[in-house]
Automatic annotation (TrEMBL):
CDD domains: class_II_PDE_MBL-fold (cd07735). This is 3',5'-cyclic-nucleotide phosphodiesterase. GO terms for molecular function: 3',5'-cyclic-AMP phosphodiesterase activity; 3',5'-cyclic-GMP phosphodiesterase activity. Keywords: cAMP, Hydrolase. The lineage of its organism: Eukaryota, Fungi, Dikarya, Ascomycota, Saccharomycotina. GO terms for biological process: cAMP catabolic process; negative regulation of glucose mediated signaling pathway. Gene3D superfamilies: Ribonuclease Z/Hydroxyacylglutathione hydrolase-like (3.60.15.10). Belongs to the cyclic nucleotide phosphodiesterase class-II family. InterPro entries: cAMP-PdiesteraseII_CS, Pdiesterase2, RibonucZ/Hydroxyglut_hydro. It comes from Arxiozyma heterogenica.
Amino acid sequence: MVCFEVIILGGLGGPSEFSTQCFMVRPLDSDNLKSICIDGGAGVGHIMDTLLISDEDRNVTIEDFNRANDDFNRYFNICHNKDSKDVNYNVNPDRLITKRVRYNTTSLSNVIDTTMLGFSNKVMGLLEDKPTVLQKAYRIYQGIISYFITHPHLDHINGMILNSPLLVDKEVESKKTIYGLDFTTNALKSCIFNDIIWPNLSDSKIGKLQIETLNEYDSHQLREFPEWEIVPFRLCHGVKITTEIRSYSTVYLVRNKVKKNAIIFFGDMDYDQILVKNNNKVDLLNIFWNYLVEAVPLANLSGIFIECSSSSKINDKQLYGHLSPKHLISALRMLYDKYLSISNSKNSGDNKIQKFKLNVIITHVKMVADSRDSRETILEELKLLAKEHAELQDITFYLALNKYRFVL
Ligand SMILES: [Zn+2]
Ligand SMILES: [Zn+2]
């Protein structure tokens, strides 16, 4: 049963500063504006951009679409009425597409479901009393109760930091908590909210911003969303340049305990199965997958938001702690094997699982100076690689396009 709404405020991985990773998550059909954000790489500016294409009183037009996607257009020259090959970029789960509109602008926008652009009518209805886009955006910002940060790299926190003075603005004041594993919260306290890089808004004198450390594997309950629980796990994210010590990141499992569905948000990560095995390293992804297959039946796994920063053409040494399609495919095959062995042990079965049906939403693509959109390249590589493995045929790959809404 679908129960999560995810709005992509930032789905990119840089190096440009706009729209870096930030996912706003709220219960589907909630009758208030409360939300959480997984990462804070985008903020009020992106909420405003998303609002601009969310007007329920009119149909979204091609101009709206172009405005919504101005970040693509900054990278690529739009070829009007050219390049109209019919490619489905899977921006939304098929079952949710109610209207498809074909455009001949950028290659990414050939088939786009405009009904899933921007905030839902329900959210817009809750903002009716606010006359300006800025006021509406601040109201949505007010509704963010907490941030769950995967790691303290700037592309995952910049919007959250720059927006934080709003916490003490009389008109929009609110309280928020930033959660993370210790390597994240320690860094935020000592390197960001330290009265040097940024005012220490987390000081108890102000009482508006709390920074709380989560424990790995511990389920965190949200007071505001009593049906939800969030469990963090550590991941590897390359090595530090100076010391070559491992750098870490986090994956969050968000589960609705009543409806049983779960979604997963990965922070930046590296994963090279062969390297891990050969070097006898602790396989953190393996630990997380083991937990997942025990905790969430495949049928209840609604979506995996996972990074795939660079094309497989990039030399592994230049991934700097990220995934390319070949590594992502090997990570998914490993997940398949684990669901298979669980299914076999339960059914003393016939050595296959019914269908490895999965929504995999690609995030954090790094935009490189190519004539083609890197997201398009990566999606194509993933689909081609998946074709080589019979067990992956029922996976649907999507792109986390900015200002899009996923219902999962
Ligand atoms: Zn990143
Ligand atoms: Zn990072």
